Amino acid sequence: MATNMFVNLPVRNLDKSISFFTKLGFRFNNSFTDDKATCMVIAGNIFVMLLVKEYFQTFISKEIADAKHSTEVIITLSVESKERVDEMVSRAVQAGATTPNDKQDHGWMYGHGFQDLDGHLWAVMHIDESSLQQTD
After folding, report:
1. Rg for the chain (alpha carbons), in Å?
2. What is the mean pLDDT of residues 88-106?
3. Is 107 helix (H, G, I), strand (E, B) or coil?
4. Which helix (H) or strand (E) holds 102?
């Protein structure tokens, strides 16, 4: 089994991306940060590598998708409460993000999301496990 997870995302401006995600409360591992990339810590062993587009391209032979015009992935983060969902999305919008979709409240699951400065989609959700129906 894997012990760590690294999601790699291309960004146009590394400094602006670091500033944006810092405003959302994320921290960065300076050991994996230089002028081409940074390692954003999501949780204990979950990381997002933000790579300048030109550097990102050195790892692939295909064209980089323009996340402002197409979607390849939605990164979903779970948080401890509905209030935390709203807080994170609000902070993202204040930092320059947009919200392409409305909030969704299914009772047992509550979520909202944002599109970051480079167009990557982030969903933030809270699941109330005590409200889930148990099936056998």
Report:
1. 16
2. 96
3. coil
4. none
Nearest to 121 by CA among 92, 95, 94: 92
The structure's pTM equals: 0.87
Summarised one tens digit per residue, pLDDT across range 1-57 is 778 899 999 999 999 999 999 999 999 999 999 999 999 999 999 999 999 999 999
Every domain of the chain and the residues it spans: 5-131
Q: Give every CB contact of residue 119 below 8 A, 6+ residues apart in sequence.
A: 66, 67, 68, 69
For 6, other C-beta atoms within 10 Å of its C-beta total: 13
Q: Hey, what CATH topology would domain 5-131 get?
A: 2,3-Dihydroxybiphenyl 1,2-Dioxygenase; domain 1 (3.10.180)
Q: Which helix (H) or strand (E) covers residue 135, if one does? A: none
H or E element at residue 113: strand 109-115
The contacts of residue 132 (CB under 8 Å, 6+ apart) are: 108
